[in-house]
């Protein structure tokens, strides 16, 4: 399969700055995402998807109708419009390195920025490929412009090849995913699909079916203020009590900076304090719910002990549920992963299930009732000036989408989603 428009599409999209903005009060958080959404809507209409729309929140929806007599399950293809606000995305100037020779790649000469093979062992397998990088001053935005370009190119391919069987395909591009708000203004009825795939993963061949389980613990210490000159026996300093609590946090283990793979962590990520009141916000992450519960029980025991030592202080402990490992939902619908693995195999790649040390829109959608694992885009080093992607991997990702649609077209409609949140 050949996708002649893929590279141009990708290069065009990454040049559009669509960084989301945590401090914005609007939805979507930046207007540039709306402009990009409109552009994609026009492109979808141009391909012949006449129902393409952008709603007031910046979500792009479109449908490519099935060419089957009996209706197979409806499949949603999902990618996000925004890029990470953590790294500059202003004036992205993608560099295209054709016929890659296997060596380090110089991105910028001014203050030398080098993409080193030593730090990117996957580059060794890309000799002869076309590698797309940044110029060392911004992110690239393959996360998730690669996903969008791949979905667009697959849809274009399917409309050019009406003989290839396909189910109803729902296309969904979401704003503000990087802020964790990608599904905030979205209902399952609007998506109107039985199964979904986000195209937002990294290395070729990967399919992510696991995310963290996540909670946030808020600890609020209320002390008693008094004039420092007359405070004896009266003052209860919330700052000191909060620091006693923090002192008990694990340091050599169970922290983001000391864990990897399947390990979870307890991560204090914000604190503020006065004599009268101190607040600590803690992110709790684990792949299993029991793992979250253990960590929360430990924090509660620390708080209870501290309360015992400081009876005049009031210490509140409160758990805010964030998201859950989507594997719980996907395990109930094994075919969603199996079909994707078959599609990946058909392109000559070896499918590899992996878990994401974070969340995705797909995790939230899965619990909303739309089982949604995450397919690879081919990208590497997301949220970084060292972001890179091989055109050949983008072609594979696009081919996976086309083949995946063919495989779903063979299935007869049955209720797949509908999982209670
Ligand atoms: Zn992403």
3D architecture notes:
This protein is of the alpha+beta class and 421 residues long. 29% of the residues lie in helices and 23% in strands. It is built from ten helices and 18 strands. α1 (6-14) runs antiparallel to α3 and α8 crosses α10. The structure holds zinc ion. Residues 80, 143-144, 177, 200 line the site of zinc ion. Residues 80, 143-144, 177, 200 line the site of zinc ion (ZN).
Determine the number of helices (DSSP H or I, runs of at least 4 residues): 10
Relative helix content: 25-40%
Q: Strand order within the widest sheet?
A: 1-2-8-3-9-16-10-15
What's the total number of strands? Answer: 18
Mean of residue pLDDT? 95
Distance between the termini: 39 Å
Q: Looking at the structure, what is the overall shape?
A: globular
Seen as an oligomer or otherwise, the chain set is single chain
Low-confidence stretches: none
Distinct small molecules: zinc ion
Strand content: 15-25%
Structural class assignment:
alpha+beta
Largest sheet: 8 strands, mixed
- SSE order, one letter for each helix or strand: HHEEEEEEEHEHEEEHEEHEHHEHEEEH
Radius of gyration: 24 Å
């Amino acid at each position: 399969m050949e996708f002649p428009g893929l590279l141009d599409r990708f290069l065009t999209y990454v040049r559009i700055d669509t960084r989301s903005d945590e401090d914005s009060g609007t939805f979507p958080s930046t207007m540039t995402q709306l402009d990009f959404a409109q552009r994609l809507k026009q492109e979808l209409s141009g391909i012949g998807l006449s129902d393409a729309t952008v709603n007031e929140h910046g979500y792009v929806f479109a449908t490519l109708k099935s060419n089957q007599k009996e209706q197979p399950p409806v499949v949603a293809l999902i990618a996000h419009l925004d890029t990470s606000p953590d790294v500059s995305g202003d004036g992205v100037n993608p560099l295209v390195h054709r016929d890659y020779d296997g060596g380090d790649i110089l991105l910028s000469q001014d203050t030398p920025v080098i993409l080193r093979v030593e730090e990117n062992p996957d580059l060794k397998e890309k000799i002869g490929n076309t590698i797309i990088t940044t110029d060392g001053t911004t992110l690239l935005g393959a996360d998730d412009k690669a996903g969008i370009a791949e979905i667009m190119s697959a849809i274009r391919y399917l409309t050019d090849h009406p003989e290839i069987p396909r189910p109803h395909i729902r296309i969904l591009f979401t704003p503000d995913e990087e802020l964790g708000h990608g599904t905030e203004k979205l209902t399952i009825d609007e998506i109107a699909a039985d199964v979904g795939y986000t195209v937002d993963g990294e290395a070729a061949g990967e399919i992510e079916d696991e995310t963290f389980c996540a909670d946030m613990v808020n600890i609020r210490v209320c002390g008693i203020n008094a004039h420092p000159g007359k405070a004896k026996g009266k003052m209860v300093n919330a700052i000191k009590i909060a620091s006693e609590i923090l002192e008990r946090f694990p340091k050599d283990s169970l922290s983001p900076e000391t864990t990897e793979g399947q390990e979870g962590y307890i991560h204090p990520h914000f604190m503020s304090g006065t004599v009268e009141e101190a607040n600590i916000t803690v992110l709790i992450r684990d792949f299993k719910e029991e793992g979250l519960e253990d960590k929360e029980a430990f924090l509660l025991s620390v708080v209870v002990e501290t309360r015992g030592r400081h009876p005049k202080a009031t210490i509140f402990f409160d758990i805010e549920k964030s998201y859950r490992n989507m594997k719980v939902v996907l395990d109930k619908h094994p075919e969603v992963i199996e079909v994707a693995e078959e599609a990946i195999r058909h392109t000559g790649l070896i499918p590899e299930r992996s878990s994401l040390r974070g969340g995705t829109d797909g995790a939230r959608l899965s619990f909303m009732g739309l089982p949604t694992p995450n397919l690879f885009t081919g990208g590497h080093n997301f949220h970084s000036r060292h972001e890179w992607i091989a055109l050949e991997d983008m072609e594979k990702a696009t081919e996976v989408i086309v083949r995946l649609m063919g495989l779903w077209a063979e299935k007869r409609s049955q209720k797949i989603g509908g999982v209670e949140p």
